[in-house]
Amino acid sequence: MPNSQDTKAVDSVEELKLAATSALNAAETNEQLEAWRVDFMGRKGRLTGLLRGLGSLAIEDRKIVGAAANRVRAELEDMFEDRVQAARSSQAPVGSIDITLPGRKPATGGLHPSTQMIREITQTFNEMGFQTVEGPEVELERYNFDMLNIPETHPARDMFDTFWVDSETNDDILLRTHTSPVQARVMETNDPPIRVVVPGKCYRYEATDATHEWQFNQIEGLAVDEGITFADLKGTLYEFARRIFGPNQKVRFRCDFFPFVEPGVDMSIEWKGDWLEIMGAGMVHPRVLENAGYDSTKYTGFAFGMGPERISMLKNEITDIRHFFSNDLRFLTQF
Ligand code: FA5
Fold first, then answer.
1. 243: three-class secondary structure by DSSP
2. How far apart are CA 190 and CA 153, in angstroms?
3. With CB atoms counted within 10 Å of each terminal CB, which end of the chain scores lower, N or C?
């Protein structure tokens, strides 16, 4: 039979168990569970202290109280392990949604600044009666040069530094140097009247600088019909400039040379007290109309080609065209 000292010691084991159980039930976080473990089960913890105190008991009492204390220790260890497992499984796995956190704005994509400018320009021409069409970026020499009145020996080919593509066919293939070959493609497969704008990428084998890229976009325009004159070209491009740059935009035309137009011009806009060239244009050369099978005594037309990145640079005060294609989010997210 245990004496009164044993009973007291066993009682204190039970009391410790009660205190430990309720403290364990109250512990919720990993930190609180660890604090509980140190407090009750650690080397200097309460249960360990109680077990150490057994040494002062008589040997028989020590057995009884020791057995009780070891049983309680095993029970508490099991309970502790259960609580740790429960805390672990209640934590959301990595990547899942924690609905208790405040909402965060998800990162969304946006249209590339070139795409935004291209859409603004093509939509402006769409509203003026031009239809948007596209053509291939990998092009035949015939369309990029020959059909546009630039035969093989013509020095005007030197205007375009060309990326040629290795090919096993008889046709010479290149990355188009401008969007003008789509003029020839559209005329080859359609009868007048024609009013199209052609956005798309172009490639030139040239050194880059603040205003030149080796890959850039152009927007071509072509109108062919009976009775089209240079006044139609000027009126259309004036109207375009007003819609894109504002109602008071001043525009200047100067003579320029492109083999596929006659006469040829470049168009500049007045910008911060200076004239800045934004496109080449002109009346479609009769030979280009004939190459497409049109009667050049019946039909006339005008064409133009502009760089949307250069126009976006003006409108958005961008100082270097290379930002458009360097994929730097610090630049792209400003649009
Ligand atoms: C042409 O490419 C002619 N095909 C334009 C044309 C079409 C004239 C129809 C007449 C009739 P040009 O090489 O000047 O012309 O280029 C036209 C525009 O494309 C330039 O004004 C410029 O805005 C843009 N551009 C040309 N080269 C580059 C380049 N390396 N980097 C960025 N933009 C360029």
1. helix
2. 29
3. N
Q: Which residue has the tokens 């490639």?
A: 203
280 Cα–ligand 1 center, Å: 6
Report whether 126 contacts 192 (CB < 8 A).
no
Task: Scan for tokens 């001043």, then name that residue.
Answer: 250
Query: Which residue has the CA at smallest separation from atom 26 of ligand 1?
Result: 307
Q: Mind listing the pLDDT tens digit for each residue in 205-250?
A: 989 999 999 999 999 999 999 999 999 999 999 999 999 999 999 9
Residues with CB under 6 A from ligand 1: 178, 180, 204, 206, 212-213, 216, 218, 220, 258, 261, 277, 279-282, 303-307, 309-310, 321
Which pLDDT tens digit goes with each residue over 170-217? Answer: 678 999 999 999 999 999 999 999 999 999 999 999 899 999 999 999
Which atom of ligand 1 approaches the CA of 278 most closely?
A: 21
Q: Which of 118, 128, 112 is nearest to 242 (CA)?
A: 128
CA of 305 to the centre of ligand 1 (A): 6
What domains can you pick out in the chain, each with its CATH number? 4-91 (no CATH), 113-332 (3.30.930.10)
Distance from the alpha carbon of residue 158 to the mean position of ligand 1, in angstroms: 14
Contacts for 55 with CB less than 8 Å, ≥ 6 apart: 62
